[in-house]
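Sequence only, no structure available. Ideas?
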Amino acid sequence: MPVPQPFILGWEEWLSLPDLGLPAIKAKVDTGARTSALHAFLIEPFGTVAAPKVRFGIHPIPGRHEIEIYCSAPVIDRREVTSSNGERETRYVIASRVSIGARDWPIELTLTNRESMSYRMLLGRQAIREDMFVDPAASFRQPRLSYKLYRHLPKQDPVRRALRIAVLTRKPDAASNRLLAAAAEARGHALELIDAGALALSVEDGRPVVLSAEARLAHYDAVIPRVADRMGAAIVRQLELMGSTAINSGDALDRLANPLATVQALVRAGVPTVVRELKLAAPGEEAEAAPLTRLATRRIEATVIGGATMALAERRHKVLRDVPERRLGAARRLAERAARALRLGLARIEISATSEGALAVAAVSALPSLSQAKRVSGVQAAEAVIAQIEREVRSWVRREDVAAGEVESPDDVGGDGAGGGA
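Reply:
I predicted one. Tokens follow.
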């Protein structure tokens, strides 16, 4: 039986951390350090007490601060660590797989700012397996990687990581909100219910801020608006300026709060509506869109998520039931056209028949009942909302200049970087 070849590490090696979406890190192998350490900045805890998480940024290439990758992971511990210069620091501890050459195994990592160091990571002795050997006189005994792997990172699929999601609501105990919270938790994300009535908007030094009890609201990867008025639209727009992705944008909610603008957007897209005329408002009055006929007692309600109709139900005299097969296709297509015309990622489209019998849009809402869709159609609408957010959130960006739109791209990443240093 052949003797297996020993796995030998040099005193510096290239490695990747696939769980964190980091394809190439140049690390120093340090048997004098017990625990491995990874460079991190903007370290921010989130999640629940029972399932704490941490998010952080990393500059994977020394000297290239414009290249930023943002990661998140469950917190497995907090430890007091003594650095090489004798300073004691309490650090978050996370777990990740490490890949070096043909080997792949789980390790623990502490998070600390190593901005002044040449190596973005230390591989400590806890991470070195019993069948591994370290050659202190050699570098890169395993295959080399390259920083060029970061060049096309923005074009890759989103990194699978925990997201911080806000639900903007005035009814935190609503059944739909509870379904969203359960769906987010099941997929490993942290969802927080935020009372829209307790928020204020501010611009400090030219930067947008949302205040809650006079404290700044944290950054969120995504926001699910469960409000539909103009104040709610303004809050969503402010969160978007701060870098959040909204399943319904502030502009879309603003348009929806204006019945004239809503009808005009539908007409522009060629979507039939049950509106006969648009009435401009006199000073101090509300504009309105007069219906073509008295709204029928029978109408179809469609729940559209991410441009696709997830649930259809027909309401007859306040009772919901399945939609007749002959109308399924036409109602589905009309609902999706309406949501697309209004740029709504989450919508309830109400459809009724005109006097000629054709289907037309009667009403639009950005607040579909997810619990109703589940009860009537058996559709897991809350899960679909969270899945849509996962598709839309490509990266977590919280830059100081995000309000000015000065987000840089790592497309110009060059060579392998310089080595040396501690």
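The radius of gyration is 27 Å.
Hope that gets you unstuck.
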